[in-house]
Amino acid sequence: MVNTGVYVRVSTDEQAREGFSIRAQEEKLRAYATLKEWNIFSVYADEGISGKDIEGRPAVKQMIADVTSGKVKNVLVYKIDRLTRSTKNLIELVEIFNQHHCAFNSLQEVMYS
Fold first, then answer.
1. Candidate list 11, 69, 86, 106, residue with the active-site label
2. In angstroms, what CA-CA distances link 113 with 43, 97, 109?
3. Is 11 a catalytic residue?
4. Residues 34-74: pLDDT tens digits?
5. SS3 label, residue 75
6. 49-85 core/surface letters (b: 16 or more CB in 10 A; e: else)
7. What local confidence, expressed as pLDDT, does residue 112 receive?
8. Could you give the C-alpha distances from 78 to 24, 42, 59, 75, 99, in angstroms and in order?
9. 29 exposed, middle or buried (CB, 10 Å; 0-12, 13-18, 19+)?
10. Residues in contact with 15: Cβ distance below 8 Å, sequence separation at least 6, in sequence order
11. How many separate helices (H) and strands (E) can be counted in the chain?
């Protein structure tokens, strides 16, 4: 089983009302991980924090530390914009994942490597 880091984030009450709540994201991602037979190593949650960059987001920083230390070999998000809204940060994160042989998956988007 692949150790998976589930990352969830919500920045506003509006997102929570529209079904992007931390709990809703986590429930959907847990169900998906179960279907894929992935072991959830940890759920990383940044609540009430903007996705414009990764500064000031303790959960994403812990997830990166767990990826770089080899504890997490797969990152799963509900949508890419939950991880970051910055193209630059996304590229940097994917490079970190690749360097540490960590897969990156989104429930809502199909990605090819």
1. 11
2. 24, 12, 13
3. yes
4. 999 999 999 999 988 888 888 889 999 999 999 999 999 99
5. strand
6. bebeebeebebbebbbebbeeeebbbbbbbebbbbbe
7. 60
8. 10, 15, 15, 10, 23
9. buried
10. 21
11. 5, 4
Amino acid in position 63: M
Structure tokens that stand for 73 in this block: 């070999």
Distance from the Cα of residue 85 to its chain's centroid: 12
Predicted structure pTM score:
0.91
Which whole-number Å values give the CA distances from 74 to 10, 20, 113, in the listed order? Answer: 21, 21, 13
* Cα-Cα end-to-end distance for the chain: 21
What's the sign of the alpha-carbon dihedral 18, 86, 72, 64? Answer: negative
> Which two structure tokens, joined as six digits, stand for 71?
């504890």
Residue among 50, 33, 51 at smallest CA distance from 42: 33
User: Which residues neighbour 100 within 8 Å (Cβ) at sequence distance 6 or greater?
Assistant: 67, 68, 70
Instruction: Tell me which residue has tokens 């959830």.
Output: 40
